[in-house]
Amino acid sequence: MLDEKLIRETLQTVLHPKLKKSLIDIGMIRNILIEGDVVTLTLALKSERSPLRKGFADKIETLVGALPDVSSVQVEVVALSKEEFARLFPKAPLKGIENIKHFLAVASGKGGVGKTTIAVNVALALANQGYKVGLLDADVYGPSVPLMLGLSDTLEQDDNMIIPKEKYGLRIMSLGMTAGQNEAFIWRGPLVSKMIHRLLGQVKWGELDYLVIDLPPGTGDPSITIAQALPDCSILMITTPQEVALADVRRSIALFNKTGHPLVGLVENMSYFLSNESAEPINIFGSGGGEKLSKEADIPLLGALPLDLELREGGDNGVPLMVSEPNSSTGLIFQTIAQKVAGRIK
Ligand SMILES: Nc1ncnc2c1ncn2[C@@H]1O[C@H](COP(=O)(O)OP(=O)(O)O)[C@@H](O)[C@H]1O
Ligand SMILES: [Mg+2]
Predict the structure, then answer these.
(1) Tens of pLDDT, residues 63-77
(2) 114: Cβ–Cβ under 8 A, 6 or more apart, which residues?
(3) CATH class, 95-345 region
(4) Residue 25: its pLDDT value, please?
(5) 111 CA → ligand 2 middle, Å
(6) Which atom of ligand 1 has the smallest separation from the CA of 312?
(7) Whether this model's pTM surpasses 0.90
(8) Which residue's alpha carbon is nearest to atom 8 within ligand 1?
(9) DSSP H stretches of helix in 203-259
(10) Digit-coded pLDDT (tens) for 245-282
(11) Which residue in 270, 271, 269, 264 sits closest to 340, CA to CA?
């Protein structure tokens, strides 16, 4: 007797060439309807104009048309939904980052708030604690990690993968180190996301406990690309105390709340200034911004860093504070932040 079961059994042999599975089993043939001697069904493909459509439709029509009591077969081709497509054809994991345990992106709404300074020194503090740490400069518009770590712009390759630079116990990669390469890098929207995928996928990061990622300011393409490529990435949010800075940080927090990325903590930078070790702290940029944001967005405040001349000098001369003076008062704050970050990511 002609029924749906018979049609499903008949179509078991129609396989997807790439997936090597039956179209029936993976749900690409659906909505089988029998009305008298007419059979209609839906064929869901990547797109309605998929080059596979004709081959599949012919095969289905021949097989079902040969069944007794069938006079005509109608195949309607539709596109798979985005979710269905992603489930059926999952993207291969990026090769370069296969062996990285945790990702930590340092983000903020604005430039000049100390993201790179904090990314570099927190990465070093994590390395001091015995973790294997990489540092990816994803600030494609203004890569400043090479300057802060005193790195040259030569890179080596090994079977088509870039080898990250080693310095101060970190594995480092930045587009700022590619200036000397023969490829010219020009930054436009679609290229940015492509380059970020390369920085993750075609760099031989190897085994790491943490990859610290220095994001460019704001909520543009690079941040979104990283967020999409790394759904498990934790975010360390940087702010400064003054009210005007908070609006941008709020927007950045909203982005990562929307993408579902865990906000591991907040750091307030340039919180205060000590004219000498025993002096009263001076709140040059006002106070309370970090605490206010922490309460409002329910993100723990992991630390407040002072305006520190040596921190700035370390950034300019390529020897970061966590290398030259890891046990200074500011160095100890970085150590605490790193400990809290590690504790919260595990
Ligand atoms: N706490 C600080 N004390 C003194 N200088 C700082 C401090 N944080 C950052 N800086 C300096 O401010 C400038 C901007 O910092 P940077 O880390 O490049 O910010 P971002 O990456 O957010 O643009 C750099 O010259 C840096 O050395
Ligand atoms: Mg920066």
Answers:
(1) 999 999 999 999 999
(2) 238, 240, 269, 270, 305
(3) alpha beta
(4) 95
(5) 7
(6) 27
(7) no
(8) 114
(9) 221-229, 243-259
(10) 788 999 999 999 998 899 999 999 999 988 777 778 88
(11) 264
Nearest atom, ligand 1, residue 108 CA: 22
Neighbours of ion ligand 2 (CB under 5 A): 115-116, 139, 144
* The two three-digit tokens of residue 147, written as one number: 């300057």
Q: Whose CA is nearest to atom 19 of ligand 1?
A: 114
Atom of ligand 1 nearest to the CA of 144: 18
* Angle (deg, nearest 10), helices 329-345 and 115-128: 80
Instruction: Decide if 226 contacts 196 (C-beta within 8 A).
Output: yes
Nearest listed ligand to the Cα of residue 274: 1
- Pocket of ligand 1, candidates 312, 330, 337: which has the most ligand atoms within 8 Å of its Cβ, to mutate? 312
Closest to 156 in 3D by CA, of 180, 132, 140, 136: 180
Written as six digits, the tokens of 263 are 């906000």
The predicted-structure confidence for 1-37, as pLDDT tens digits, reads as follows 899 999 999 999 999 998 899 999 999 999 999 999 9
**What's the CATH code, domain 4-88?**
3.30.300.130
Residue 159, sorted as left (phi over 0), alpha (psi -120 to 50) or beta, turns out to be: left
The number of the ligand 1 atom at minimal distance from the alpha carbon of 142 is 23
Phi, psi of 104 (to 5 degrees): -135, 110
Q: Which amino acid is at 73?
A: V
Give the position of tokens 């990562």: 256
Residue type, 4: E
The residues near 335 (Cβ < 8 Å, ≥ 6 apart) are: 125, 128, 129, 326
What percent of the chain lies above the pLDDT cut of 70?
97
**Domain ranges for the chain:** 4-88, 95-345
